[in-house]
């Protein structure tokens, strides 16, 4: 009988799920790291929330551990690289607390609009300062959503029930999906200029970090109110403080902060700011939902090998795993490359398999390619839910298999169509190493490094020297420089692998080179 340890506080219903599925379970919340490490070797599964830290050291002691299940979306407390290296599947429950988080966002918006926290404190102090707490109505106001995925769409629905007009900025939101939600899709600057309330519902990544900063806040309409129940770091807190003090921003309601637990935050003590200690998922219903879901997922995996909501492995049988492994890496990197270059709404994705790879089970390859493509801007995406997320967003996904090989024994090509353009990338394996062999119809041969600059340029002399000069001035070392020229075209592409991070200023200088048309930093 498989054995599972619950090391964080979960709903008692999780224990019932395990027992019903013939899983032996020990419920021991509050254990110290040393206590967990001392006993973890006895267990096949580990069910956690955020308190338990699944470190490389702990995983080394977990000699029988097969799966870790996180009741919730975030897996920052799990060393994914070490878990993968130790053959441990890591699962989460990405949608179990969506309604709860959305409702908290609406509650924070109402509290901010009517100054409820300050009025509550004043009344408890017997001051009865009725004229001091003049609020604003939500009725007929414009709510701007930055991010309109699972949680954002629920907030939109609730706001429409309050008779608010909802607009949204989300590069991955298709026009069809926006129409289904009865919201208006806009560009970020348009949202900033029009919204009376701005609510953030996007993951924290390189594209969204500090999305509300001094420059973007200056573009908002005077008197705007801001709500963030998504991720700390989406707002530059010092810039928000300055905007509130100047009177440009009327107030903010924050459930998340750049550093948590938040202590001595620059926004604390401001009467225009409503704060809660990361309570977005803190309802009994949400805690019960994620506990039941994680127990069901762990039981299914331990009893019959079913993989659901896995973070670090595909839904694939053990028989196929070995032969698919290098192709999974190639497909994910090709998808990730395309996703990081995509700045407008996705409409269609075509994934082609040519040669030997076309004879394999390509379903996990499609899933991992979509996961790589969607991950830059979609919260909680993994191999299992990526196809569903694409479907929900009305992204047409097609798959083509051609067993006859061309220039390569096996080739994977991803074609992405957005509202504004079509991009194409193809890759092949050299041994077991993934390489990019075609980009926008241009042939090249590029290894894939951790940090790469993508440069689309006019095919004119001087680019290489200009790039070298800019990077040299910034003390950035070039590891590899790959060039490709289009047949009969005046365009070319360059993929430059670099050893050090390129700042926004460096990217700007590269983009200002005479022949450069587009420059992006791509991370793997």
Task: Walk me through what this model shows.
The chain has 17 helices and 22 strands. It is of the alpha/beta class and 524 residues long. The protein folds into four domains: 117 residues, Rossmann fold (3-Layer(aba) Sandwich), CATH 3.40.50; 178 residues, 3-Layer(aba) Sandwich (Rossmann fold), CATH 3.40.50; 114 residues, 2-Layer Sandwich (60s Ribosomal Protein L30, Chain: A); 80 residues, ACT domain (Alpha-Beta Plaits, 2-Layer Sandwich). The strands form four sheets. A seven-stranded parallel beta sheet has the order 8-7-6-9-10-11-12, sandwiched between helices. Helix 5 packs across helix 7.
Structural class given helices, strands, pairing? Answer: alpha/beta
What's the gyration radius in Å? 25 Å
The CATH class name of the largest domain reads Alpha Beta
- Overall geometry: globular
User: What is the number of beta strands?
Assistant: 22
| Total discrete domains | 4
Superfamily at the CATH H level of the largest domain?
A: NAD(P)-binding Rossmann-like Domain
Low-pLDDT ranges: none
The CATH topology of the largest domain is what?
A: Rossmann fold
Measured as a percent range, the helix fraction is: 25-40%
**Strand line-up in the sheet with most strands:** 8-7-6-9-10-11-12
Rounded mean pLDDT is 92
Count of DSSP-assigned helices: 17
Largest sheet: 7 strands, parallel
Q: Could you tell me how far the N terminus lies from the C terminus, measured between alpha carbons in angstroms?
A: 40 Å
Beta-strand share of residues: 15-25%
CATH architecture of the largest domain: 3-Layer(aba) Sandwich
């Amino acid at each position: 009988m498989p054995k599972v340890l619950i090391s964080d506080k979960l709903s008692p219903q999780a224990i019932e799920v395990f027992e019903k599925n013939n899983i032996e379970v020990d419920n021991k919340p509050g254990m110290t790291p040393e206590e967990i490490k001392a006993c973890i070797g006895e267990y096949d599964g580990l069910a956690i929330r955020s308190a338990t830290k699944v470190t490389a050291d702990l995983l080394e002691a977990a000699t029988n551990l097969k799966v870790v299940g996180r009741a919730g979306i975030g897996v920052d407390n799990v060393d994914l690289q070490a878990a993968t290296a130790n053959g441990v599947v890591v699962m989460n429950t990405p949608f179990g607390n969506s309604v709860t988080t959305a409702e908290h966002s609406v509650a924070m918006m109402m509290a901010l609009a009517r100054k409820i926290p300050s009025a509550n404190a004043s009344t408890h102090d017997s001051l009865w300062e009725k004229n001091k707490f003049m609020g604003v109505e939500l009725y007929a106001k414009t709510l701007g959503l930055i991010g309109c995925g699972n949680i954002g769409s629920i907030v939109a629905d609730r706001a429409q029930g309050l008779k608010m007009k909802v607009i949204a900025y989300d590069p991955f939101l298709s026009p069809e999906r926006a129409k289904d939600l009865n919201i208006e899709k806009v560009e970020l600057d348009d949202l900033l200029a029009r919204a009376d309330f701005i609510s953030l519902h996007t993951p924290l990544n390189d594209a969204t970090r500090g999305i509300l900063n001094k420059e973007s806040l200056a573009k908002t309409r005077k008197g705007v109110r801001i709500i963030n129940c998504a991720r700390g770091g989406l707002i530059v807190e010092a810039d928000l403080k300055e905007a509130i003090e100047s009177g440009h921003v009327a107030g903010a309601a924050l459930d998340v902060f750049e550093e948590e637990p938040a202590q001595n935050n620059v926004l604390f003590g401001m009467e225009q700011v409503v704060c809660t200690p990361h309570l977005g998922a803190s309802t009994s219903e949400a805690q019960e939902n994620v506990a039941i879901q994680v127990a069901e997922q762990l039981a299914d995996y331990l009893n019959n090998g079913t993989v659901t909501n896995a973070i670090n492995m595909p839904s694939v049988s053990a028989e196929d795993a070995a032969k698919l492994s290098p192709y999974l890496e190639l497909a994910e990197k090709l998808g990730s490359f395309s996703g990081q270059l995509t700045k407008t709404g996705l409409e269609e994705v075509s994934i082609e398999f040519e040669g030997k790879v076309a004879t394999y089970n390509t379903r996990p390859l499609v899933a991992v390619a979509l996961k790589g493509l969607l991950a830059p801007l979609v919260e909680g995406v993994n191999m299992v839910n990526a196809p569903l997320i694409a479907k929900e967003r009305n992204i047409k996904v097609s798959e083509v298999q051609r067993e006859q090989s061309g220039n390569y024994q096996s080739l994977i090509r991803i074609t992405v169509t957005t509202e504004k353009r079509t991009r194409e990338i193809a890759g092949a394996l050299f041994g077991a190493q993934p390489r990019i062999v075609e980009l926008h119809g241009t042939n090249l041969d590029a290894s894939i490094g951790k940090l790469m600059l993508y440069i689309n340029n006019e095919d004119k002399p001087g680019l290489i020297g200009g790039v070298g000069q800019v990077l040299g001035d910034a003390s950035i070392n070039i590891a590899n420089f790959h060039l490709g020229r289009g047949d009969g075209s005046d365009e070319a592409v360059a993929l430059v692998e670099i050893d050090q991070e390129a700042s926004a200023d460096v990217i700007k200088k590269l983009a200002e080179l005479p022949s450069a048309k587009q420059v992006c930093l791509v991370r793997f």
